[in-house]
Each structure stands twice: as C-alpha cells, then as structure tokens.
Amino acid sequence: MLAAACGQTSDGQGSGAETGSGPANGMATVAKTFEGPKPEGVSGPNEAFTRTYYIPAAANSDMYEIEAGKLAMERASRPEVKAFAQRMITDHEKTAKALRGFVESNPVNIAVPSHMDARRRAMIDNLESSSAQEFDRAYIGQQAAAHQEALNLHKSYASRGDDKKLAKVAQNTVAIVEHHAKAVTDLERAFGAGHDTR
To answer: What does the DSSP 8-state code read for residue 38?
Structure first.
C-alpha cells in the first residue's frame, strides 16, 4: 500500500474540499488503487469560476500531467502505461500552449504560474517515492483522480466561466480530458485494482 500523504492543500486555490473526497463517474476504483494525496478544489462540473481561479488551476493541472507523464515514461513497467504517459505529455503540452496563448493575447491581468502548487508537488513526490512494483498502480490511481478534477474544472468554466473566449479554450480542453479519462478507466480495467503491475 502506498504511504498516505494527505492533507496537502493547493496554494491560493483552497475551496475547503477534503482531499479524500471520492471521485465519481466511473472513477470509483481510484479509492482502491491510490491512497496518496488527491486532487481537490472542484467538486462538480457545474460550479461557476472566474478566470483568476481557472487560469492557475488549469495551468497547474497541465504542469502536473506533463511532469507525471515524464516520470511514468522513465519508471512505468507496462508498455500501455508508458504509451498513455506519452499521450499525456503531448496533449497537455498542447493545452498548456493554448492557455498561455490566451493569456498573452488578452488583457486578463493574471500570469500563468511557472511552478506547480504544493498539492500537485506532493503528488509527484508520491510517485517518485513509489517502488518499481507500486509505480504503475500509483500513477494510474493519480490519473483517475486528477482527470476527474480536470473534467469538473474545464466543464465548469466552459459552461459558467466569466470570459467567453476563455470558455472556448476550456471547452476544447474538455474534449481532450474526456478521452484521457476514458483511457484511464480502460487501463484500470486492464490490470485491475490491487493487481501486481510488474
């Protein structure tokens, strides 16, 4: 079992959500496969957000996915996990570029953060401390939780955000993240919760 490292909160993005809140919509197995720090801050797909919340939250999500993907490319045992990780790097580099492009082209008065918040850094630390036998399970467990949070974030902003142009960026990201979430579910089914991932 992974060592729990709960209690991490996001920097400047606190919502009062518990780190142990259960994921939904086909992601329930994450509770069995991952016990480390989990994403928080977005509890459902119908919350209204300002761009000052959405931009750093989306940027942190992209940074985490890229760094976790690079780590998985180095440490994952299963080829299908490595293939998924490469897709995360490629796709989230694209979504990060789209977000930066929006910020650079519009007077939003907020910068895209250049470093991950403490909560996502704790998630990366959890992956780095996982043994070779644990790594695939830990990575996919994190991905299930992270993509549920990302879906809630992007769907919320796409439907209720305070900037129509940025909402279009969010909507484009929704389609990408939905594909990722399905791929995570397929991977969970492929090797099953609690199974050895060697």
So the answer is: -
Contact 96, 59 (CB under 8 A): yes
Kindly report the three-state secondary structure assignment for every residue of 157-197.
HHHHCCCHHHHHHHHHHHHHHHHHHHHHHHHHHHHCCCCCC
In 3-state terms, what secondary structure has residue 96?
A: helix
Q: Residue 84 has what DSSP assignment?
A: H
On the question of pLDDT at 72 being above 60, the answer is yes
- How many CB atoms are located within 10 Å of the residue 35 CB? 18
pTM metric for this prediction = 0.74
Rounded-to-integer distance, Cα 5 and Cα 126, Å: 8
pLDDT exceeds 90 at position 146: yes
Whole-number Å distance between alpha carbons of 182 and 173 = 14
b (16+ CB within 10 A) / e for 73-100: eebbebeebbebbebbbebbeebbebbe
d(CA 67, CA 55): 18
- Residue 91 tokens, joined: 């796709």
Structure confidence at residue 25 (pLDDT): 35
For helices 164-191 and 135-160, give the axis angle rounded to 10 degrees: 150
Structure tokens at 69: 């993907």
